[in-house]
Amino acid sequence: MQDQWRAGTLEFIDFTTTLTDPDGELTLAEVEGFGFKIAVTQSQDTPAAEAFITPSVEPDITEDTTNNLFKVRIKHLFQADIKGLNNVWLTFGPTPERPIYLAVSFVVL
User: Fold this and answer.
1) Selection from 67, 72, 89, 80 nearest residue 4 by Cα
2) CA distances (Å), 11 to each of 6, 77, 78, in order?
3) Angle 36-95-105 (CA atoms, 0-180°, nearest 5)?
4) Strands (DSSP E) along 1-108, which ranges?
5) Cβ of 49: how many Cβ atoms within 10 Å?
């Protein structure tokens, strides 16, 4: 994914995150059911739950059983309308205490 976009362009937010399963107990099917969601904001503050949406492309998840890792590629078609810094947040998980991470940032010129 480019870190600088032109205002009005329609491009894919595209990044990969790695989930570690230290005990090796998770299955690929369980991770696929985590319900990965993203929020795009112009703020550095953690977004409210209502700001998160399902990515426009189904996440691509691969399992590395040797290292107990899951690589999750997220893609979402996004129109860059607001100039300045944009932050992409990621949330997922089966529990109410779902983690929220700042996944990637880009600037709209």
Assistant:
1) 80
2) 10, 6, 6
3) 35
4) 4-5, 10-20, 37-41, 57-64, 69-79, 84-91, 100-108
5) 11
Task: Please give the tally of structural domains in the chain.
Answer: 1
Q: What DSSP designation does 50 have? A: G
Can you give the pLDDT of all 109 residues of the chain as single tens digits? 888 899 999 999 999 999 999 999 999 999 999 999 999 999 999 999 899 999 999 999 999 999 999 999 999 999 999 999 999 999 998 766 678 889 999 999 9
Contacts of residue 9, defined as CB under 8 A and 6 or more positions apart, other chains included, come to 79, 80
DSSP 8-state symbol, 51: G
pLDDT of residue 1: 80
> Tokens at residue 59, please?
């996440």
Domain range for 79 is 4-108
d(CA 81, CA 100): 24
| CATH code of the domain containing 35 | 2.60.40
